[in-house]
Amino acid sequence: MIYQLKVKLKGVRPSVWRRLQVPSDMTFAEFHRVLQIAFDWDDDHLHTFYVTKTRGQKKGFFIQFV
């Protein structure tokens, strides 16, 4: 299965985002690499992947860069 994702940078104006298609069995490490390429980043920030839930339902998937 292929997931289509809209990845948007929070707090950036004008809005910066990418639409990505990734396989459902992709690991976080592989997804991290895809993001580095999609946004032309240099892999020089710490990051965390997390999923938020509302009333037991998945609400969103977020990556926090520190």
DSSP, total strands? 4
β-strand amount: over 45%
Rg: 13 Å
Globally, the shape reads globular
Could you characterize the architecture of this molecule?
The protein contains one helix and four strands, in the order E-E-H-E-E. The protein has a two-stranded antiparallel ribbon with strand order 1-2. The termini are far apart. Strand 1 (2-8) and strand 2 (17-23) form a beta hairpin. It has one domain (2-65). The protein is of the alpha+beta class and 66 residues long.
List keywords for this structure.
17% helix; alpha+beta; two-stranded antiparallel sheet; 66 residues; single chain; MM3350-like_sf; Plasmid_pRiA4b_Orf3-like; 1 helix; globular; 4 strands
Provide a quick synopsis of the model:
Helices cover 17% and strands 47% of the residues. The chain is of the alpha+beta class and 66 residues long.
